[in-house]
Design brief:
By secondary structure, this protein is of the alpha/beta class. The protein has 15 helices and ten strands. The longest helix has 16 residues.
Length: 288
């Protein structure tokens, strides 16, 4: 048993009847969503145990074993990684699929947000006029100007069978080897800002998009999987606290890509504490 799991197990034994353990993954967006959930539940009389900053598999296992009661998850992650399904589905169909399949595991998916934190390609805003607004526009520009653009692509995403190469084939994006530089996704922001690359692989709600004045190109052929963020609960927790879905519903319905990108930017771009950003958003929306 890992130290993280052991800690979660021991701490779960200390819970009171009105105590809820909330988890999060180890990145800004998950911290923000979990913090907002914690604040809303505290507002409604709950005592919160925060189990923030763990990996995807640890968070999932903790939910299944009732070490945590809820945390935000992504439909695409559950569909492909946890439920081992394949095939491309629309956002609504993906949500309904994971909601139905995961019930067999004792996991309940609450309301679907409009946050779709999927893979994307981005360009500098100053280049948008010449390159275009969609991935089809990008492919067309590349055909007219062969070899001109340089792409910064995450190592893993470049090699995986459903990744960049498959996307390029789908869009007819034919690149010379010299046009592609593989790099960590965090480095792609610095590289495109410095003019070392022209197109960066990003995540669609990343706060650094605003920081570096980048524009996400529309996936007009819907190649990339859907990763809608939703709060997930285990069935025992829901049975004990049936009011939680109603408490979190206004938050889930208020979140979309533009909102989440702005909140992420306030943390990652402006250096504000995630707790303060989360609290201010809830107050601004009238939820607190």
């Amino acid at each position: 048993m890992s130290l993280t799991i052991a800690f979660l197990f021991v701490s779960s034994c200390l819970r009171g009847p009105n105590t809820v353990a909330i988890g999060s993954k180890a990145f800004t967006e998950s911290f923000l969503m979990s913090t907002m959930a914690a604040l809303l539940l505290k507002e409604n009389g709950y005592t919160i145990l925060e189990r923030f900053g763990v990996g995807s598999m640890i968070a999932r296992q903790a939910l299944l074993t009732e070490q945590i009661d809820l945390y935000p998850e992504y439909t695409g992650t559950a569909y492909t990684l946890y439920l081992q399904q394949s095939g491309r589905l629309s956002g609504h169909k993906m949500y309904e699929a994971v909601k139905s399949l995961d019930r067999n595991n004792g996991v309940v998916w609450l309301d679907r947000t409009r946050v779709n934190n999927t893979y994307a390609l981005a360009v500098r805003n100053i280049d948008k006029k010449k390159i275009g607004k969609t991935l089809s526009d990008l492919s067309r520009y590349n055909r007219i100007h062969p070899g001109e653009l340089t792409f910064g692509i995450d190592h893993e995403f470049y090699e995986r069978p459903d990744g960049f190469k498959a996307m390029a084939r789908a869009y007819g994006l034919k690149l010379q080897p010299s046009q592609v530089r593989t790099m960590e996704i965090g480095l792609s922001f610095e590289s495109i800002a410095r003019g070392q690359i022209d197109v960066a692989m990003v995540y669609s709600t990343d706060g650094k998009l605003k920081k570096y004045d980048l524009e996400v190109l529309e996936d007009d052929l819907h190649f990339f999987p859907v990763y809608h963020a939703c709060f997930t609960m285990n069935e025992p927790a829901l049975s004990q606290h049936p009011d939680i879905p109603g408490i979190l519903k206004p938050l889930s319905l208020s979140l979309d890509n533009a909102t989440m990108q702005e909140l992420n930017f306030r943390v990652d771009g402006l250096g504000k504490p995630a707790f303060v950003v989360a609290q201010n958003y809830l107050r601004r929306k009238g939820f607190l």
